[in-house]
Amino acid sequence: MAEIENWQYYCYDEIGSTNDEIKKFCLQKEKKVVVRALSQTAGRGRRGRKWVTKAGNLFFSVALEFDLKNLGQLVIISSLSLAQSVKFLSADANVKLKWPNDVLLDGKKMSGILMEKAEGEYIIVGIGVNVAESPKESTLLYPATSLAENGINTDAENFLQIYLHKFNENLQKYSAGEYEALRSEWMDFAKGVGDKIVIKQEQKQLKGIFAGIDEQANLLLQCKNETIKVMVGDVFYETKG
Ligand code: BTN
What we know:
The protein contains four helices and 13 strands.
């Protein structure tokens, strides 16, 4: 049985979606399992969007027993671990986190996370990382990039190992009651704090100043007379970089 950083590791050549495949393992309570696919035929992204397979990129999912009411905190831990992994590979990289959990490299999206609920208290964290190539489709919501396009040379399995190492460390800190330190590190990576943003939701758009995130990782949007909590949406910035 292959293992990476204490996670049991299953890697498939091609499956529909790693977020579906990992559900099989959720009931085997004693194991920490990571499922990876070299290619996905039905990869999905947030809010019903597709996640395209490009050769050499990383597609994987982990499942964790986690209190659903603290889901936002898992969003912080998972996305922070991605930003730290990129920094580990390249200390000079211009890495930012775009709420809720996209990783931007030089202002373009390099990685995204899809969280889904599974049976019991299990939360699935599905992660796509553009390691070798980025999608160029004109229908993309946000411009994309890859590690390779930014001169960061690695391969998908190496990135996975670095990620799981950081993720383990952050989960340990979380269990030791150090969530505030993790949230503060997330904020150091956050793009556009204090800037004007637009949040696009299904039915409406919200405009205001990005004031930060609260303890549960809701976005705080400073509007004319009030600060509102935003739980869902896609953020767009007026500034680049
Ligand atoms: C997003 O930014 O919209 C989230 C993208 C998440 C994609 C990953 S790839 C591995 C896992 N399996 C899926 O079908 N989706 C996630």
